[in-house]
Amino acid sequence: MSRLWNVAVAGATGAVGNQMIQCLEERNFPIKNLKLLASARSVGKTLNFKGTPYAVEEMTEQSFAGVDIALFSAGASTSLKFAPAAVQAGAVVVDNSSAYRMEPHIPLVVPEVNPHQIVSTPGIIANPNCSTIQMVVALKPIHDRARITRIVVSTYQAVSGTGQKAVMELQGQIKDLLAGKEPEIKVYPYQIAYNCLPHIDVFLDNDYTKEEMKMVHETRKILEDDSIRVAATTVRVPVYYGHSEAVHVETESKITAREVRDLLREAPGVVVVDDVAAKQYPMPLMAAGKDEVFVGRIREDISTDKGIVLWVVADNIRKGAATNAVQIAEKVIELKS
Questions:
Q1: Which of 323, 332, 290 is nearest to 96 (CA)?
Q2: What's the predicted TM-score (pTM) here?
Q3: Of residues 130, 196, 217, 248, which has the active-site annotation?
Q4: pLDDT digits (tens, 9 = 90+) for 148-196
């Protein structure tokens, strides 16, 4: 009989935490006991797993006794406080926050790209940023074949990446504007309905945002190549679910668009949707609720001799967060079984 595992979800009542629970159920993760953890204000709530209601417990440093795997999606400060306690209790932590991503000794993992990094885990495995995850899934086969030397990426990121309050704000602003009312602005610095904001996270001293620099540093770490030059522009758009990216890459050796299509059709976790004659290309509506990374508009960059352009779309809450974390946990149990 296969081993069953004691699993905790930290931040269970949030959007990503809820999706983690759903992914564990959908993927039939071999769970013996499930513990749902959140802040004190969530105590008393119940969440369903496989038709059974589970009471949400307050997360404390004692919450992880007997836990084998802890999936964290409760913010960086919470992870910094409680993840070490979980490891001390014997759990492997898969952390969805930014707390540990760039720590040199902590693996930053996308299972389709660098699962071998899990072997060296000290107890915490970091889940990358949503926009980075989908991009490296698409770029890994190209990098292996032709070695990517430069990436220029522009993202078009859904409001769900900010959280449920942002989703509700977009809904409310659309209703207000259609009713001729002044829209309420709380979550973002400007109206997001019918607008695009070239501003995700805080601006840094180099005039890039923190989100943009996450893509720079995380991409190099995951692809294990610090020589790759990366420039990103991240934009919030009035879409509920699904991040889109226009990705321009330059390679060391020439690779054709046809070769890239063939590579990506065989790549794990990738669905190629690329038939411009039939107007077939990836869109957020296509990716919402799915776990794959969708790639299309594959073409050679006419501005350089060794360049490829791609359009990459994925569900930011699923593959960009919850599903990737559960996939990491699946790799962990493969190694331990």
A1: 323
A2: 0.96
A3: 130
A4: 999 999 999 999 999 999 999 999 999 999 999 999 999 999 999 999 9
E strands in the chain: 5-10, 31-38, 46-49, 52-58, 69-72, 92-95, 124-126, 148-157, 229-236, 243-251, 270-272, 293-300, 307-314
Catalytic choice (23, 196, 217, 243): 243
Scan for tokens 């069953």, then name that residue: 4
Query: Hey, what domains does the chain have and what are their CATH numbers?
Result: 5-128+321-336 (3.40.50.720), 132-317 (3.30.360.10)
How does residue 120 score in pLDDT terms, banded at 50, 70 and 90? low
Q: What is the DSSP letter of 208?
A: -
Clarify whether 196 is annotated catalytic: no
Is 243 noted as a catalytic residue in this protein? yes
- Decide: 192 and 159 in contact? Cβ < 8 Å: yes
What the block records as the tokens of 82 is 């409680």
- 157: DSSP letter: E
Tokens of 159: 């409001």
